[in-house]
UniProtKB/TrEMBL annotation:
It comes from the Bacteria. Residues 1-20 have a biased composition (Low complexity). SMART domains: HTH_XRE. Coiled coil: none annotated. Pfam families: HTH_31, MLTR_LBD. Residues 21-31 have a biased composition (Basic and acidic residues). InterPro entries: Cro/C1-type_HTH, Lambda_DNA-bd_dom_sf, MLTR_LBD. It comes from Streptomyces achromogenes. Residues 1-87 are annotated as: Disordered. This is Transcriptional regulator with XRE-family HTH domain. Residues 91-163 form the HTH cro/C1-type domain. Residues 37-59 have a biased composition (Gly residues).
Amino acid sequence: MGDVTMGGVTMGTRTGTQTRARAEQRAEHRTRAAAGPGPGSGPAAGSGPEAGPGPGSGPEAGPRTVLRPGAEPGRPKAGTAARRRPELAVFLRSRRARVTPGDVGMPPGLRRRTPGLRREEVAQLSGVGVTWYTWLEQGRPINASAQVLDAVARTLRLDQPEREHLYHLAEVPFAAAPEALVQSVGPEIQGIIDALVPRPAVVYNSRYDILAANPVYRDLFITPVEACAPGPDNALWRLFTVREEDCPLMFRDKELPLMVATLRAAYGLHADEPVWEEFIRRLSAASPLFARLWETGDVAEPGRRVKVFRHATVGELRMTSTSLTINGMPECRIVVYTPDDEQTERRAALLRGGTTKNPAP
């Protein structure tokens, strides 16, 4: 085609075509920029927070934020994690603020405006990267291991409840260090179970040592003297070493496996402890039935169950057992037995005050 004259201005048609093409390209670029990066145009693999800090990515430069599909800048993902992360940030900042350099053997330095340790000092003392700890304290969605959280907890001098709280907020399973089992109770706990009469009540630790009991419980669980444990009074030892006809608990084939499984679940925290190993060894030697049940490896948690007792004076009793934890006494519980039916309610009334003894349960 030739030139075209419009309004006295002569232009080439090829030049007009090029101009329109450039305008369309600019419009397309603006549209893409407004829509954000498309598939495959995001940051390179390994550059997100999960991959850890890289060179030149320190907090001074500002950590990069990688948006997952469907995420929006400044808007956390819905759910429990999104609620916990801000709380984690507040918790770590408050714990850091209360630890001074002198507490950890560091000189205070000059021009210190931070009320406690600086982030980089916590990172250095904990053996983690500065950027990683910064992201953790900012509540960013990064992965944390139990070992790293333990190091941070030591640096921030967290006690046991605070350490457990940190794990919970960081969504890492918490395993408390095993403690020596409680072997006695104070007068307050004894007063509580005595006040439950006519309901049988007992305090067990996780090995079924009997730490305290009211008279009605002792009436139900009385066994011959030869069935008493060589160490602390123990319910399992009583039930497994007594003759079946003298056992106060009916349906042994159902009840005793549950008790051994409950013991086995607690044993996981105390494996290789001499006291526990000796108890398992001696009871296995004294009771082939216990040894067979222990070898099954079954585990169970304490809970609400219906147990049937036999009492030589009042007859059969169907009782519901309920376990209650005790603050300040780890691995201990109060177990209370309540009548499961009206007939048991009437018969249990005869045990009021524990005046009716069970001579041969």
